[in-house]
Amino acid sequence: MMGLQKANAIATSSIAADEKRGMTMGFFEDLSATVNRGLDDASRMADNAGAKFKLAEAKRRRREAMADYGESMFEAYSQEPTFAQGREELIAAVAKIDEEIAAIQAKIDENERRTAEKKTVLSCPTCGATLAEGVNFCSNCGTAIAYEPPAEPAQPVEPQQPAQPQQPAATVDFEVVDNPETQA
Ligand SMILES: [Zn+2]
User: Which segments does the entry list as coiled coil (predicted)?
Assistant: First the structure.
Protein backbone atom coordinates (compact mmCIF):
# COMPACT_ATOMS: atom_id res chain seq x y z
CA MET A 1 0.00 0.00 0.00
CA MET A 2 2.76 2.29 0.93
CA GLY A 3 4.23 1.74 -2.48
CA LEU A 4 1.05 2.86 -4.25
CA GLN A 5 0.75 5.94 -2.09
CA LYS A 6 4.29 6.81 -2.85
CA ALA A 7 3.68 6.27 -6.53
CA ASN A 8 0.64 8.50 -6.41
CA ALA A 9 2.57 11.12 -4.56
CA ILE A 10 5.27 11.01 -7.21
CA ALA A 11 2.64 11.18 -9.97
CA THR A 12 1.02 14.15 -8.30
CA SER A 13 4.26 15.96 -7.87
CA SER A 14 5.10 15.11 -11.44
CA ILE A 15 1.84 16.65 -12.64
CA ALA A 16 2.54 19.64 -10.45
CA ALA A 17 5.95 19.87 -12.01
CA ASP A 18 4.44 19.66 -15.46
CA GLU A 19 2.01 22.42 -14.55
CA LYS A 20 4.86 24.47 -13.17
CA ARG A 21 6.82 23.77 -16.30
CA GLY A 22 3.81 24.84 -18.30
CA MET A 23 3.79 28.13 -16.51
CA THR A 24 7.45 28.66 -17.20
CA MET A 25 7.35 27.27 -20.75
CA GLY A 26 7.45 30.74 -22.18
CA PHE A 27 10.77 31.42 -20.51
CA PHE A 28 12.30 28.18 -21.79
CA GLU A 29 11.01 28.82 -25.27
CA ASP A 30 12.56 32.25 -25.13
CA LEU A 31 15.83 30.80 -23.89
CA SER A 32 15.73 28.08 -26.52
CA ALA A 33 15.06 30.67 -29.19
CA THR A 34 17.94 32.75 -27.86
CA VAL A 35 20.26 29.75 -27.97
CA ASN A 36 19.10 28.85 -31.45
CA ARG A 37 19.58 32.40 -32.57
CA GLY A 38 23.06 32.25 -31.00
CA LEU A 39 23.87 29.14 -32.97
CA ASP A 40 22.53 30.80 -36.08
CA ASP A 41 24.77 33.78 -35.42
CA ALA A 42 27.80 31.54 -34.99
CA SER A 43 27.13 29.58 -38.15
CA ARG A 44 26.23 32.76 -39.99
CA MET A 45 29.50 34.33 -38.85
CA ALA A 46 31.42 31.26 -39.97
CA ASP A 47 29.57 31.36 -43.26
CA ASN A 48 30.33 35.06 -43.58
CA ALA A 49 34.01 34.52 -42.83
CA GLY A 50 34.08 31.92 -45.58
CA ALA A 51 32.25 34.28 -47.91
CA LYS A 52 34.65 37.12 -47.11
CA PHE A 53 37.61 34.88 -47.85
CA LYS A 54 36.03 33.88 -51.16
CA LEU A 55 35.31 37.53 -51.90
CA ALA A 56 38.93 38.55 -51.29
CA GLU A 57 40.09 35.63 -53.41
CA ALA A 58 37.72 36.53 -56.24
CA LYS A 59 38.82 40.18 -56.06
CA ARG A 60 42.45 39.10 -56.20
CA ARG A 61 41.74 37.00 -59.27
CA ARG A 62 39.90 39.95 -60.81
CA ARG A 63 42.90 42.21 -60.20
CA GLU A 64 45.17 39.66 -61.86
CA ALA A 65 42.80 39.33 -64.80
CA MET A 66 42.61 43.13 -65.08
CA ALA A 67 46.40 43.33 -64.98
CA ASP A 68 46.57 40.82 -67.83
CA TYR A 69 43.89 42.76 -69.66
CA GLY A 70 45.73 46.05 -69.12
CA GLU A 71 48.98 44.50 -70.22
CA SER A 72 47.45 43.16 -73.43
CA MET A 73 45.90 46.57 -74.10
CA PHE A 74 49.25 48.18 -73.38
CA GLU A 75 51.06 45.82 -75.73
CA ALA A 76 48.50 46.42 -78.44
CA TYR A 77 47.98 50.15 -78.21
CA SER A 78 50.81 51.88 -76.35
CA GLN A 79 52.30 52.90 -79.70
CA GLU A 80 49.02 54.44 -80.82
CA PRO A 81 49.11 58.18 -80.31
CA THR A 82 45.44 58.27 -79.30
CA PHE A 83 46.11 55.67 -76.62
CA ALA A 84 49.35 57.23 -75.48
CA GLN A 85 47.79 60.65 -75.12
CA GLY A 86 47.27 61.37 -71.45
CA ARG A 87 49.14 58.20 -70.50
CA GLU A 88 52.65 59.48 -71.16
CA GLU A 89 53.71 59.20 -67.54
CA LEU A 90 52.33 55.69 -67.22
CA ILE A 91 54.01 54.56 -70.43
CA ALA A 92 57.31 56.13 -69.36
CA ALA A 93 57.03 54.48 -65.95
CA VAL A 94 56.42 51.08 -67.54
CA ALA A 95 59.37 51.59 -69.89
CA LYS A 96 61.59 52.45 -66.93
CA ILE A 97 60.46 49.38 -64.99
CA ASP A 98 61.00 47.23 -68.09
CA GLU A 99 64.57 48.51 -68.27
CA GLU A 100 65.03 47.69 -64.60
CA ILE A 101 63.64 44.18 -65.12
CA ALA A 102 65.94 43.63 -68.08
CA ALA A 103 68.97 44.75 -66.07
CA ILE A 104 68.09 42.54 -63.10
CA GLN A 105 67.41 39.59 -65.41
CA ALA A 106 70.76 40.13 -67.15
CA LYS A 107 72.51 40.08 -63.78
CA ILE A 108 70.76 36.84 -62.80
CA ASP A 109 71.60 35.27 -66.15
CA GLU A 110 75.22 36.34 -65.84
CA ASN A 111 75.53 34.94 -62.31
CA GLU A 112 73.99 31.66 -63.40
CA ARG A 113 76.24 31.51 -66.43
CA ARG A 114 79.33 32.02 -64.27
CA THR A 115 78.16 29.43 -61.77
CA ALA A 116 77.53 26.93 -64.57
CA GLU A 117 80.94 27.69 -66.03
CA LYS A 118 82.72 27.05 -62.76
CA LYS A 119 80.97 23.72 -62.46
CA THR A 120 82.33 22.60 -65.80
CA VAL A 121 84.62 19.65 -65.29
CA LEU A 122 88.10 20.47 -66.50
CA SER A 123 91.03 18.30 -67.33
CA CYS A 124 94.57 18.96 -66.25
CA PRO A 125 96.52 20.82 -68.94
CA THR A 126 99.65 18.88 -68.01
CA CYS A 127 98.60 15.27 -67.55
CA GLY A 128 95.04 15.35 -68.84
CA ALA A 129 93.56 13.92 -65.66
CA THR A 130 89.93 14.82 -65.05
CA LEU A 131 89.75 17.45 -62.37
CA ALA A 132 87.18 17.60 -59.64
CA GLU A 133 85.02 20.66 -59.45
CA GLY A 134 86.79 23.78 -58.22
CA VAL A 135 90.15 22.20 -57.34
CA ASN A 136 93.20 24.43 -57.35
CA PHE A 137 95.73 21.69 -58.05
CA CYS A 138 95.65 18.54 -60.14
CA SER A 139 95.36 15.57 -57.80
CA ASN A 140 97.42 13.51 -60.23
CA CYS A 141 100.43 15.67 -61.04
CA GLY A 142 100.02 18.69 -58.81
CA THR A 143 99.79 21.26 -61.58
CA ALA A 144 98.21 24.46 -60.36
CA ILE A 145 94.90 24.96 -62.08
CA ALA A 146 94.18 28.48 -63.20
CA TYR A 147 90.57 29.22 -63.83
CA GLU A 148 90.12 31.53 -66.73
CA PRO A 149 87.79 34.32 -66.06
CA PRO A 150 84.51 33.72 -67.84
CA ALA A 151 84.32 35.19 -71.29
CA GLU A 152 82.65 38.55 -71.45
CA PRO A 153 79.09 38.44 -72.69
CA ALA A 154 78.55 39.20 -76.33
CA GLN A 155 77.02 42.54 -75.42
CA PRO A 156 78.73 45.58 -76.81
CA VAL A 157 80.82 47.11 -74.11
CA GLU A 158 79.84 50.64 -73.38
CA PRO A 159 82.67 52.96 -74.22
CA GLN A 160 84.17 54.46 -71.15
CA GLN A 161 83.49 58.12 -70.90
CA PRO A 162 86.82 59.89 -70.75
CA ALA A 163 87.15 61.54 -67.42
CA GLN A 164 86.26 65.15 -67.82
CA PRO A 165 88.91 67.35 -66.33
CA GLN A 166 87.43 69.51 -63.68
CA GLN A 167 87.18 72.86 -65.26
CA PRO A 168 86.85 75.84 -63.07
CA ALA A 169 83.54 77.45 -63.61
CA ALA A 170 84.02 80.33 -65.93
CA THR A 171 83.03 83.33 -63.99
CA VAL A 172 82.53 86.56 -65.70
CA ASP A 173 82.01 89.48 -63.49
CA PHE A 174 80.00 92.13 -65.05
CA GLU A 175 80.68 95.12 -63.09
CA VAL A 176 79.30 98.34 -64.23
CA VAL A 177 81.53 100.99 -63.01
CA ASP A 178 80.36 104.42 -63.35
CA ASN A 179 83.18 106.36 -64.77
CA PRO A 180 82.72 109.82 -63.51
CA GLU A 181 85.03 111.11 -66.18
CA THR A 182 82.71 109.99 -69.03
CA GLN A 183 79.67 111.41 -67.39
CA ALA A 184 80.87 114.93 -67.47
ZN1 LIG B 1 97.75 16.75 -63.87
Answer: 87-114
